[in-house]
Amino acid sequence: MLKMALLMRDLGSSNRHLSHIHSVYKAERHQQLVDLFLSTVQAGTTIDPDVQVGLGVLFNISCEYDKAVDCFRTALQVRPQVLLSRVK
Fold first, then answer.
1. What is the spatial distance between Cα 10 and Cα 1, in angstroms, rounded to a whole number?
2. Which of 65, 58, 63 is nearest to 30 (CA)?
3. Neighbours of 26 (CB within 10 A)
4. Domains along the chain?
5. Percentage with pLDDT > 70 across the chain
6. Which long-range contacts (CB under 8 A, 24 or more apart) does 11-20 make?
7. DSSP assignment of the chain
């Protein structure tokens, strides 16, 4: 019985560890996507509203709301109907 309890305890600890690793991986992957979008913005000579919306969504996911709003506003300035097509 004690052996089973110890195994269950270790399994719970292992699951928490795996959950942490998964969270770190998701955060790293998210940052890679943000960096990719930002490099696309910096490389462009014109503002691409679709890139701005994508970047806004990424910032929204990471709770960087001021940055998200800036991206959405920029997209709307270039193409006012850009967000309407995503609502339907």
1. 14
2. 58
3. 11
4. 2-87 (1.25.40)
5. 68
6. none
7. -HHHHHHHHHHHHHHHHHHHHHHHHHHHHHHHHHHHHHHHHHH-SS--HHHHHHHHHHHHHTT-HHHHHHHHHHHHHH-TTTTHHHH-
Identify the residue whose tokens are 């969270």: 23
Question: Phi/psi class of residue 30: alpha, beta or left (left: φ > 0; alpha: ψ in -120 to 50)?
Answer: alpha
C-alpha angle with apex 81: 75 to 83, nearest 5 degrees?
60
Contact predicate 75/82, CB 8 Å: yes
* Predicted model pTM: 0.70
**Chain centre to alpha carbon of residue 84:** 21
CA 22 vs. chain centroid, Å, equals: 14
Nearest one of 54, 43, 47 to 79, comparing CA atoms: 47
pLDDT recorded at residue 7: 46
